[in-house]
Fold:
Amino acid sequence: MICSEFLVHLDDLLDGTVDAALRIELEAHMAGCEHCTITVKTTRKTIEVYRSNVIYDLPDGLRERLQAAILAKCKKC
Amino acid sequence: MPSIQSSNAAGGTEEVHPDVALVNLAKEGDVHAFEKLVKQYDRQVFRIAQHITQNREDAEDVMQDAFLKAYEKLHQFQGNSKFYTWLVRIAVNESLMRLRKRRTGRMVSIDEDVETEEGSMPRELQDWGPDPEMQYGQSELADILRKTVNGLPPGFRVVFVLRDVEGLSTEETAEALGLSVPAVKSRLLRARLQLRERLNRYFKKKNGDAAK
Structure:
């Protein structure tokens, strides 16, 4: 397996959706390829950091105001 | 959210998402049931709208318009998909309409700027260490993450946000965006690799610096 073939399966590997046989092949490639190992680790971290940090917060006061506005309009429907 | 069981015509049971009962009540005019759906999904709709419009006021308007449109069109919701996926589709369309208005009528779609080679093959080799985000304070980190994800082409950004940030499945993301599953998979891979490449300048280990 070469790196471009490995990359085709990167998302499935990160999402845990590769079957056992393919996983063995991918892990064998990673064992001999620092480039792809780092790509997997840092891409996984990229996803984790976006999942664990709220970058667009909705403050409680604004949230309550928007909820009230939505429901007031719904009641007029 | 736990699901509940219901009997089907064949005498077996199938899992019914709890939103279905709320949607059915709301269809009959129960605003209190719809209020529960609003409180369940308002933060997600707001985030998605802000990711697409990149403007807080627009996101506030989109959030209101999306829920109001969902309420008005509830009778069209057939339950073939999750209510949340259906709602996200409305929010995405409202966000794109809002962008179009701001850009004085110029056509805006999630197909813009996806023809790029960036990120198709990783270039940077530096490792990051286990907790690279610890180098930054919360506010600085949020700025970095916002700036970085906003630099993605819109068609990649929205796929990444729905799939990886908001947790929709690949199939739900495809349904919400009106894209094929292969198109979502292709964009997701490119989005993840481009973000990784762009975050590299902030997160890579510095010379002589073990990950903090």
Helices of chain A lie at 3-8, 10-14, 20-31, 34-52, 60-76. Residues 34-52 of chain A form the longest helix (19 residues).
